[in-house]
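Much of the work behind modern protein science is quiet bookkeeping, done one molecule at a time. Below is the pair of lines this work produces for a single protein:

***
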Amino acid sequence: MTQMSDAALARAIADAAGQVLMAVRGSGLFAGKALGAAGDRVANALILEKLAQVRPDDAILSEESADDAVRLDRSRVWIVDPLDGTREYSEGRSDWAVHVALAIDGAPAAGAVALPALGETFATDRPAALPPAGQSLRMVVSRTRPAPEAEMVAAAIGASLVPMGSAGAKAMAILRDEADIYVHSGGQYEWDSCAPIAVAAASGLHVSRIDGSPLVYNRRDVYLPDLLICREDIAGRVLWLIANAAKAPATVQAP
């Protein structure tokens, strides 16, 4: 494993964490919130152990560990979410994920998003081929709190809404030909998006903040509230709609 590329390592670790998470869920020892807590704990321990073994000089930012400010002085920082979509995992659903990404000088450089319940892993070492565009657009949104910007864009361009759980599952839905657009503005952290953004970008999708600016990682404040992932050919329309909705949301139409 020490000789692996960063991208292959991200894939291997995400797969291993996914296997452990499936085993914990299948054990019958936990239920409800206790199941989610157990999954977070064991997956985080596995990821930290493997990274410490093979990339001991790299820093780590994990949702499930105390933030170590030493990362701010490092060029290479692994940004991980051991279990993205804890609620979905605890409910026995399939729309949860494992995020393992490497940011170099603030930019997502390698990453993997495992969807263990679906038996799939997407990673930057093997970029996915984008499925052909369909005749109608689909927008993946939160199953509990869809972003107002997402609903507005969907209405303006005639996209159907596809409710889904974790951020990783939503982003990979585009690569799985279940959606074409993912707009989020309801608040996220760096570990929610770093791996999905790395994988989506490697596969040729547009990735940015909802104002079109780049997503920058390993900042002191890890709150990174919004993102846009979509096909390049519709990115301009979506960004225009988001920018103009605040001015006159009732009259905005797709350009």
